[in-house]
């Protein structure tokens, strides 16, 4: 299922090392958690792999970017924000501007401590589980594209519009033209395959 995306970090590791060296330092937070990037509000990452007719996407974002907070949703207003974000994340074709290629969604996985709290409540469980101060939302999608040659670009304009506190998305793409990386913003939301 995740075979392609699991290989992506290793394929792009040289690029991440170059970027880290350009910035001239590593944050202690990064080293303590063994990650390549720090949890930074407003910034998300998106990995894409197009291999034949299979398109896989993985979005990782601080919960703050998508729901406006990172604590467990206790109030009705917070629970509504979590439910709304979860609902919007269920439609990757719209969020990522994937209108070409005749792609159909074959698999979706949404993971976050915020979603777990919502699920536990629906199941009748009320745990005292505490979460770290840095909650994240991870979304993994697998799409089957009947005409992958028609996929020409990624357009994140809709994602930036629906989640306006997201100001920057670090994109890593492996496709027919090789690998590439870009930093997309509301002013520059497109990347060609």
From TrEMBL:
- Protein's UniProt keywords contain Repressor: no
Disordered, as annotated region: 114-137
Keywords assigned by UniProt, alphabetized: Signal
Which superkingdom, per the lineage? Answer: Bacteria
InterPro entries named in the record: ZrgA-like
Q: What range does the record give for the signal peptide? A: 1-20
- List compositional bias (Basic and acidic residues) regions by residue number: 121-137
Which Pfam families does this entry report, sorted A to Z?
ZrgA (PF10986)
Question: What name does UniProt use for this protein?
Answer: DUF2796 domain-containing protein
Annotated organism of origin: Pseudomonas benzenivorans
């Amino acid at each position: 299922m995740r075979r392609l995306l699991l290989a992506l970090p290793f394929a792009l590791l040289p690029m991440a090392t170059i970027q880290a060296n350009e910035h001239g330092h590593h944050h202690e937070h990064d080293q303590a958690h063994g990650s390549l990037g720090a949890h930074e509000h407003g910034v998300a990452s998106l990995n894409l792999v197009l291999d034949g007719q299979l398109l896989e996407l993985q979005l990782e974002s601080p919960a703050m970017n998508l729901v406006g907070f990172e604590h467990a949703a206790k109030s009705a207003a917070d629970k509504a924000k979590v439910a709304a974000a979860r609902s919007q994340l269920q439609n990757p074709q719209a969020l990522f501007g994937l209108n070409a290629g005749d792609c159909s969604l074959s698999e979706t996985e949404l993971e976050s401590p915020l979603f777990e709290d919502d699920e536990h409540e629906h199941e009748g469980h009320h745990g005292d589980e505490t979460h770290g101060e840095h909650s994240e939302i991870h979304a993994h999608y697998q799409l089957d594209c009947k005409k992958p040659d028609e996929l020409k670009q990624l357009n994140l304009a809709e994602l930036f519009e629906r989640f306006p506190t997201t100001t920057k998305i670090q994109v890593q793409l492996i496709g027919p033209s090789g690998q590439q990386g870009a930093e997309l913003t509301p002013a520059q939301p497109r990347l060609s395959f």
